[in-house]
Amino acid sequence: MNDKILIVLIIAVSVIIIILYISVNNEENLLKNTSSINSKEDLKELFKNYNHKIINNKDLIEESNNIESKLFKVCEDALNITKDSIYSGVYILKNIMTKKDCLRTIYEAEKYAKVHGGWKNGRHEMYPTHDIDIRNIYTMENYIYHLAHSSILPKVAEKFNLNLRYLGISEIFIVKYCKEGQTKLVEHEDGHDFSFIIPLNKDYVGGGTKFKFLKDIVDPDIGNCTIFCGKHRHKGVEIKSGERYILAGFLNYGWNFLKRDFKIGN
Ligand SMILES: [Fe+2]
User: Fold this and answer.
1) How far is the CA of 138 from the centre of ligand 1 (A)?
2) What residues form DSSP beta bridges with 132?
3) Both 245 and 131 in a single domain?
4) How many independent structural domains does the chain possess?
5) How many A from CA of 186 to the centre of ligand 1?
6) I need a labelling partner for 80 at 20 to 30 A (CA). Which of 178, 189, 205, 207 fits?
């Protein structure tokens, strides 16, 4: 073998050995460092410093305050809704559910009611509806939540100029208007920021939703979805005969009303 080639080979092998040594040594040092954080005091010190860095990070403080003020502004503006406000808009999204899925939703709700002692009336404190929370119906829950997230929330965000990432679902439920239960719902505003209603059938006379800032009663075809700001006062118009089923949803913008029983600030 040529002497030059032999020297190059020796150098190459030496370099590889040095690299391997350094990497193994680094790994050992890492393990040593990790294993050195064993005592409770060490851990406390580590998290104290870590939290200190996070809590005092100017970018994070600014971003957090910025997001918070934007969310609060929407909620405040919605509370002060006027006829010309963006929040008085009422929009119909066509063909959100197929007729078959609407009828299946009624079927599943009635099946649930039969097994669990009828339709419930006490879930909403201020304006109780004759309803069933969709989360109780396991054959419907994921389908309906997926549908809302994929087809309804993006449109609500678009129409009301919201950031979709802060828009969430508070609850979705099936309401039944009938002679034996509830035939109407008095004018009110919802406890949540935005809402939707999907009619599931048309086997009734009367019915629909009347909004304060709209002249006409809104009662679109089966499977179409009405979206609106929950602070736009509205009422469920009385049904004169038959049974009316709707799928209703409450949306929150950044803060789920159902979780607002904890205190913030101070
Ligand atoms: Fe309502």
Assistant:
1) 24
2) 174
3) yes
4) 2
5) 9
6) 207
Coil vs helix vs strand at 82: coil
* Cα-to-centroid distance, 36 and ligand 1 (Å): 59
Residues 41, 87, single domain; the answer is no
Are residue 246 and residue 181 in the same domain, yes or no? yes
Which domain CATH number covers 200?
Answer: 2.60.120.620
- The span from the CA of 250 to the CA of 170, in Å, is 5
Task: Give yes or no: residues 139 and 15 share one domain.
Answer: no
**Gap from CA of 197 to ligand 1 centroid (Å):** 9
Task: State pLDDT tens for residues 195-221.
Answer: 999 999 999 999 999 999 999 999 999
Task: Please write the tens of the pLDDT for every residue from 124-149.
Answer: 666 667 899 999 999 999 999 999 99
Q: State in Å: Cα 56 to ligand 1 middle.
A: 42
- Give residue 234 CA to ligand 1 midpoint distance, Å: 6
**C-alpha 235 – ligand 1 centre gap (Å):** 7
Asked if residue 215 and residue 132 are part of one domain, the reply reads yes
Phi, psi of 54 (to 5 degrees): -70, -50
Whole-number Å distance, alpha carbon 100 to ligand 1 midpoint, is 25
Ligand 1 centroid vs 54 CA: distance in angstroms? 41
Domain of 151 in residue numbering reads as 82-258
